[in-house]
Amino acid sequence: MIYTITCNPAVDYVVQLEHFQPGQINRSKRDLKEAGGKGINVSRVLEIFGEKSIALGFVGGFTGKFIEDALNEAKIEHDFVSLKEDTRINVKLKAATEETEINGTSPTIEEKDYAQLVEKLSKLSADDVVVLAGSLPSSLPKETYRSLVSLLNEKGIKSILDTSGVPLKEAIQASPAFIKPNHIELAELFGEEVQNDQDIVRLAKRLNEEYNIDHVLISMAKDGAIYVGQDQIIRLRAPKGKAVNSVGAGDSAVAGFLYKWQETKDAKKAAQFAVAAGSATAFSAILCTKEEVDTLLHHVEVQTL
Ligand SMILES: Nc1ncnc2c1ncn2[C@@H]1O[C@H](COP(=O)(O)OP(=O)(O)O)[C@@H](O)[C@H]1O
Ligand SMILES: O=P(O)(O)OC[C@H]1O[C@](O)(COP(=O)(O)O)[C@@H](O)[C@@H]1O
Question: Where are the transmembrane segments (predicted)?
Fold first, then answer.
């Protein structure tokens, strides 16, 4: 079974505007409220592909209930730890030419809450896969993903990680099986500038060789992605299209890779599917559909480097 862990879920309040004018009253053209947070989005996209998963993590209050209701409606199994405080709300302002995001403050996760998550993970076995995705609330130590990945490794469980900053820097020490930083997060991780594909390949190879991470997918928004595995390096160019709402594009890429990898164990096919899924979500108001991904798949240019 695939499990997703979202330590920091959110209700995404996506507001579409003609123009965003700071300091003025802005009225939305259209707005949406979505159950979000990176692991939850991965579960939602897997479900769209027909792949079951169980969503774990922490939710609380009326916003937490909103997320549980949305997952129930989508027939996605979940087993969250309940918190006293409300799950955050993330505001995504989509104007014609730019996107502005305000991610809310996280509820407090106490030690006893974290212990409940660890208890749930203790029941998993080696044929399970765990996706750990998103930021960590400030009440959790920055080494949390590192500890969780180590714990899963001890049980022979593969972990898929999508995070950034110090939690990523810590977690790579534990060798997750797959990571998907974007090119900006990759540059930040090594404290180096990333100017071109060669820079990306060089740093991604370090993740692969020095940190023993089998699959490294560096996403680059409209420029597609670069995959670096143990025995191949692949450049993937994203299809051209009009980006409508890129919230969830990265999560769709993670779900796409995992879904195709489970089916084929072919990294090239998985990376191509990941880029198609990311782009299909970027071109949609909410998340991709399977049909959109299948259509875009043939427009993802794949080149072995
Ligand atoms: N404007 C866009 N046009 C086409 N594809 C996009 C666009 N934005 C994102 N994508 C697709 O989504 C994937 C993930 O996007 P990216 O922005 O790199 O992730 P993240 O949200 O994690 O930073 C990209 O590899 C690409 O396939
Ligand atoms: O945990 P973080 O890093 O604050 O990110 C949370 C946000 O990321 C999202 O999961 C979207 O992520 P991507 O656009 O990277 O796919 C939103 O649903 C959520 O608001």
Answer: none
ipTM of the modeled complex: 0.97
One-letter-per-residue 3-state SS of the chain: CEEEEECCCEEEEEEECCCCCCCCCCCCCEEEEEEECHHHHHHHHHHHCCCCEEEEEEEEHHHHHHHHHHHHHCCCEECCEEECCCCEEEEEEECCCCEEEECCCCCCCCHHHHHHHHHHHCCCCCCCEEEEECCCCCCCCCCHHHHHHHHHHHCCCEEEEECCHHHHHHHHHHCCCEECCEHHHHHHHHCCCCCCHHHHHHHHHHHHHCCCCCEEEEECHHHCEEEECCCCEEEEECCCCCCCCCCCHHHHHHHHHHHHHHHHCCHHHHHHHHHHHHHHHHCCCCCCCHHHHHHHHCCCEEEEC
Residue ranges per domain, the chain?
A: 212-305
Q: Give distance in angstroms: CA of 33 to centre of ligand 2.
A: 14
Query: What is the spatial distance between Cα 296 and Cα 110, in angstroms, rounded to a whole number?
Result: 44
Q: Dump pLDDT digits (tens) for 202-213.
A: 999 999 999 999
Ligand 2: residues with CB < 6 A are: 8, 10, 12, 36-38, 41, 90, 103, 134-135, 247-251
Q: Which residues are known to be catalytic?
A: 251
Kindly state the tokens that stand for 141.
């130590």
How confident is the model over 10-63, as pLDDT tens digits?
Answer: 999 999 998 999 999 999 999 999 999 999 999 999 999 999 999 999 999 999
The whole model's pTM is what? 0.96
Whether 243 is in the pocket of ligand 1, judged by its Cβ within 6 Å, is yes
